[in-house]
What does this fold into?
Amino acid sequence: MADIQTIVVLTGAGISAESGLATFRGPEGLWEGRRVEEICTPEALFADRELVLDFYDQRRRALATVEPNAGHRALAWLDQHWPGELLIVTQNVDDLHERAGAQRVLHMHGELLSALCSACGARGGFAGDMIGGPRCAVCGQDALRPDIVFFGEMPYEMERIEALLTRADLFVSIGTSGAVYPAAGFVQGARQAGADTLELNLEPSAGSHHFHETRIGPASVLVPAWVEELIAEG
Ligand code: BJW
Ligand code: ZN
It folds into this structure.
C-alpha cells in the first residue's frame, strides 16, 4: 500500500508465546483450570488478595527468565527506522518490546514491572514480589497492587489510542485472540476511519473477518517478513 505515514500496531500474548510466556486462552493457557473472575477482577483482589498477588508474583518471576524473540526485534527495528508516526499498543504486561529496543510502546493493560497504590493511585516501577513486599513510597499505606488492568477497569490512555486510530493509514494486529474489548474493536475503528488492516496470528482471531487481510503463522516468522515488505514498498 502506498502513502503510509501513520501505523498503529496492536500486540497480544501471541507475540510473546515464542519467548516462552504462556498465552491466556487455549489448552495450555494461563487461565486453564481457573475462572478468569478468580484472578483478573477488582472483586477477586478484594476477596483473595494473596491469590491474585501470587499469580502476578509468579508471572513477574517468569519474565526474568525469558528474552524477546524475532517478532519483538522486528517491531523494534521498525520503530527505530520508521520516519512517520507509529505506536505499538500492547495488551501485554511484559517488557519484551522495550527489551528488544522499541520506544514507542503503550501498555494499555498495565505492566508487571509497575505497582499501583490502591490507596493514593500512585504508579511506579516495581521489581520483586508483592506478597510481603513494600508499602507505597508515596502515602505509606500497605496497599500496593499489580499495575494491571482487570476486567471492568478502564484500560490506559484510551483517548490517545482512539485519536491515533482515527488517523492511522495502517493497523496491524499481532498475536491476539480478539476476545477482549476495547482492543478487539480497534480494527473496526481503524477501518472505518480509512486504514488498511492486517492481522498476523497463529489462527484466525474472533474478529478476523473485519481485517482486509489475515496471514496465518508464528509471529517470529510473519512479523519480520511483514516489516521487510513494508520497508521495501516504502
Ligand atoms: C500466536 C502465537 C504465535 C499464539 N504467533 N500468534 C460483553 C461484550 C463486550 C465487552 C464486554 C462484555 N462484558 C464485559 C466486557 C468488557 C471486558 C471484555 O472485553 N470482556 C470480554 C471477555 C467479553 N473488557 C474490560 O473489562 C476492559 N475494560 C473495559 O472495557 O473498560 C470499559 C469500562 C470500564 C468500566 C465500566 C464499564 C466499561 C478491561 C480488559 C482488561 C483485560 N485484562 C487482561 C488481564 C491483564 C493482563 C495480564 O494479566 O497479563 O489482559 S485479560 C487478558 O486478555 C489480558 C490480555 O491482554 C487480554 C487479551 O488476550 P490476548 O493477548 O488476545 O491473548 P489470548 O491468549 O486470548 O490470545 C493469544 C492469541 O495469540 C491466540 O489467537 C493465538 O492463536 C495466538 N498465538 N501463539 C502468533 N507464536
Ligand atoms: Zn499510595
Summary: The mean pLDDT is 95. The chain has two domains: 6-20+68-109+155-233, 22-65+112-148. The domain at 6-20+68-109+155-233 is CATH 3.40.50.1220 (Rossmann fold).
